[in-house]
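ok so i was messing around last nite and threw this chain in just to see what happens. nothing serious, just curious
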Amino acid sequence: MTELPRPPSPRAGVPRETAEDDDASLIAASLDEPERFATLFDRHAPAIHRYVARRLGRDAADDVTAETFLAAFRMRARYDVARASARPWLHGIAARLISRHRRDEVRALKILARTGHDPVAESWTEGADDRIAAHAVSGPLAKALSGLSQGDRHVLLLFAWADFTYLEIAEALDIPAGTVRSRLNRARRKLRSALGELGPVLESRMHGGSTV
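result:
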């Protein structure tokens, strides 16, 4: 994988105990010591990159990951320090950036649905055997995902691919938990209707072996 871009702040002078700080403490400390924000990048950038790569492909993931942390750095003074983990906040920023690529994402999904092959699909699985098996079902899944609204797709994929709880999704997207539940239920109904007998197989693949 391409080396992730790092935020424009030096690491020199960062105390070793920083690694034990929670995210909120790091963000608060970075207001006076901007270099402390680099630890937040080290902690969360790989997960952000993996999530974006599954949605937009690896090339776009490099740029979106860098933009996510640049935006987070600029907005860090507004972070709610009552929230110890910044994971939902960072994924929420990434989701807004992914929305700018909505047409590219839908176009890639439609290509995959039509041809059964697209570079983005390579990010959905790791091993060669898994990729061979996934190609047999990735087309119907891509077609079903492309038919979802952007909001429903965000909720479904944060749940299935980022392993977020309802409350974490609500925090990431700044929507009520009840809206998360209704969007997720609607998305799952649409997928199951579109996929028919393949529904349980594809949902299992989306959620790493357990049903969505």
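not much to say yet. The two ends are 28 Å apart (CA to CA).
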